[in-house]
Write a structure and sequence with these properties.
Structural class: mainly beta
Order of helices and strands: EEHHEEHEEEEEEEEEEEEEEEH
Number of helices: 4
Oligomer: single chain
Number of strands: 19
């Protein structure tokens, strides 16, 4: 596998759209041809060579090409967009649409990425070692086709609307998730190893969400059906299983309705002694409060 390295040499004034930077876009090209490829900033067109130093070499095919992008890429969009094979490594933070609509290969972002990473993803593997923004693995705005296949793994936290209109594939979040996880999901699996805020699985039709931490507010459209043993990342655990969202339409398979599944970590048994002490402490505080004189008055 040949490796070509692009190192950003000046910070774009606005956001630079660099859809060409992927194994598919660079494979089979000489360094001069790569430098001449277009990038866009607003209405203006520039070349890769104006913003990046380019070294190394590419293979004839995307599957045998590795692309490494270095420097502060926080103003560079669309890295790895629509890639189908090969490997792309982003050695820093990046802007929106990292790995959007990718169908194969492996993309590693060693920093954090902004919104819509992996949107419409159809295959491949996307690893984000930092945090991810809003709409991870989601549908593009106005579309109903979210992530369909592949794997996204985030080692940090994620923003809102993860897996919006998700149809397939798997998202694993090792940190916390903001609101609206799996909204309108019609398939796929989302694993959250940290905590989540409200609206987990809202308007979910099908698919699976597994939450190991806590949820701020549980959606009312989910029904507890019992405890189940499931396996995540090679480890088996017993979790509380719910079906929902009961307020949505649901397909029937072999005459039975198919629901989304939400798994929550089982609450640890409460310490009876500590619970009793806490109740007594609250009662004492309430009793003292009844005898505190109101400001501006005196006791008889």
């Amino acid at each position: 596998m040949e490796t070509v390295t692009l190192t950003i040499k000046k910070t774009p004034t606005l956001m630079l759209e660099a859809e060409a930077i992927s194994p598919d876009g660079l494979a089979g090209k000489s360094l001069d041809q790569i430098k001449a490829l277009p990038v866009h900033m607003g209405r203006e067109q520039f070349t890769i060579g104006e913003y990046f130093d380019v070294t190394g070499a590419t293979s004839a095919t995307a599957g045998e090409t590795k692309v490494v992008v270095k420097g502060d890429l926080s103003r560079v969009k669309y890295l790895g967009t629509k890639m189908s094979a090969g490997e792309l490594v982003i050695e820093g933070n990046a802007d929106m649409y990292v790995g959007a609509w990718m169908s194969g290969g492996k993309l590693t972002a060693k920093g954090s990425v902004d919104g819509f990473a992996g949107t419409g993803m159809k295959g491949g593997e996307l690893l984000i070692e930092g945090n991810a923004g809003n709409y991870l693995g989601s549908a593009y705005r106005g579309d109903w086709r979210g992530m369909q296949a592949g794997l996204i793994r985030v080692k940090g936290n994620v923003g809102s609307d993860t897996g919006y209109f998700m149809n397939g594939g798997e998202i694993i979040i090792e940190g916390n998730a903001d609101v609206h996880v799996g909204t309108h999901a019609e398939g796929g699996k989302i694993v959250i190893k940290g905590n989540a805020k409200s609206r987990v699985g809202g308007q979910m039709v099908e698919g699976t969400i597994i939450l190991f931490g806590t949820v701020d507010v549980m959606m009312p459209g989910f029904k507890y059906i019992g405890d189940e043993e499931i396996e995540v990342d090679g480890q088996k655990t017993v979790m509380s299983a719910y079906i929902g969202d009961l307020g949505e339409r649901h397909r029937k398979r072999k005459g039975e309705s198919v629901y989304g599944k939400l798994y929550l970590a089982k609450a640890a048994p409460a310490d009876a002694g500590a619970s009793r002490d806490a109740r007594l402490a609250r009662a004492r505080e309430a009793k003292k409060a009844r005898f505190v004189p109101v400001e501006g008055t005196t006791s008889a």
